[in-house]
Amino acid sequence: MSLRVGIWMAALLLIGAWAAHASERLTVPRADGAQTPLQVYEPVSANGCPPLLLVSHGAGGSESGLRYVGEAMSKDGWRVLVMGHRESGLPVLKQDMRSDGFKGGLTALVTDAPAYKARFMDVDAALAWSEQRCHASFKALLGHSMGAITVMLEAGARNKLGLQPKGGFDAYVALSQEGPGPVFPDGAWAPIRAPMLLVTGTRDQGLGGDYRWRMQAFDGLSPGCRWLAVVDGANHMNFGGGQFAAGVQQSTTTLVAAYLDALRGGHCGTPPVLSGVTVKQK
């Protein structure tokens, strides 16, 4: 083989590897006539219909965020749909911030019941689009920050906003989950029955306090294949896809894959041993 042919073949392999991990952006119809944007990560390889992971971004985010989750879980064999929530994206957050400062604007958005109702319609739209392609035998919902609130609501947590979404996922993953506060009362998590993984970090500050405030959500869950992971030194934006957080994001996706793959196999599994990560179970 000549050097030129070898270089050409290597280039083709690199292009093929890139294409296997590429994603597609599209929009799908929602029940109210609006459109839900999706960033779709198809599995690198799959036999039959792959398991489905829906991903919900935080306040001010978009379908372009949380790419690290989409790429890692598609490599693990999942179809990943990162939803764009237009009613709680960056333009809406900027508008709220102008009227009431950062903390006030953020509080206004994460306590806006209509914004969550729109998110629930986005979830339904994404599920319908995936179902048209094939019926996934296992479906999970993952969210960060406001997306984690969405996860808790879908899972059946009590709330102060009068919201009752459909739920019905086989498992849930909450990154930077909320503790008691403007959305969730004390004891909000007791009704949740589905398996749940919660992930926070020792620098993960929120509207109600630090990571110990976030850990109260885990404390409120009844036993039943629950994991709580605390990543040493990780902050809020690390989990949301911020730059210079490769180690945190690698640990997070390793946890998510181990947890969901075990559940898909019919058992709870054992948390992976990761440097700087502590995991509680119940």
UniProtKB/TrEMBL annotation:
Species in which this protein is naturally found: Dyella koreensis
Alphabetized UniProt keyword annotations: Hydrolase, Signal
Alphabetized GO MF terms: hydrolase activity
Signal peptide extent: 1-22
Listed InterPro entries: AB_hydrolase_fold
Official protein name in the record: Alpha/beta hydrolase
